[in-house]
Fold this protein.
Amino acid sequence: MPSAPRATLALELTLVLLFAFLPGLPGLLLLLLGGSEGRSGGIDELTPAIVFGLIDLAFAWGPVLLLAYLLSRRGEGLAAIGLDRFRASDAAMGVVLWVASWVLVYVVGSLLSGLGSNNVDFLPESLPLWFRVVDALVIAVTAGVTEEVVVRGYAQTRLEQLRAPAAVVIGLPTGLWGLLHLYQGVGPALTILCLGLAYAIWFHATRRLWPLIIAHVMFDLTQLVLILLLS
């Protein structure tokens, strides 16, 4: 348990979440104000795609570096958010959670398919194949690591330390995370929310983050590989 006052922990948590979610707010506001395309328009020229990709990486990894510093400064370390020594069982459980993720998304996605979705061009076909392959790997690893570390590992841990009710610990960070996926459409956003809640409940019960990172990376990478194969 960190020795800092609860007010300090609450302020740090707020800053990390703002740092993590603020870049996605303009697109969400545009969507809510009537921009139906949201983030559907991909960047289809190589140089701008590389530049904007690097900017996205900075925004994605920045909060992780910040929270790593905060954890180190308090003497907690990454073990405090479920990232202690990696075990072989973590890899096996990650594969199990990856398969379970696909089952959950298929069932929930089928039930919510009538709510509609937006066509998001994650890997524009006009870009070179080598770049699309690298981009797919970078997207999957970045999303899998940063989102699980910030949303599940750090945010849930801090809320527990702040003695928030279990419903808030599980629902608040994942709810914010799901909200920022509205650019994909209501159906996909709710499906992603359900997947996130399943991950949040699992982390709340086990305090192991490695399996979730593995499952998230593999889930995203599988989707992007399918996009590449079917394009």
The radius of gyration is 18 Å. Residues 89-230 form one domain. The CA atoms of residues 81 and 154 lie 6 Å apart.
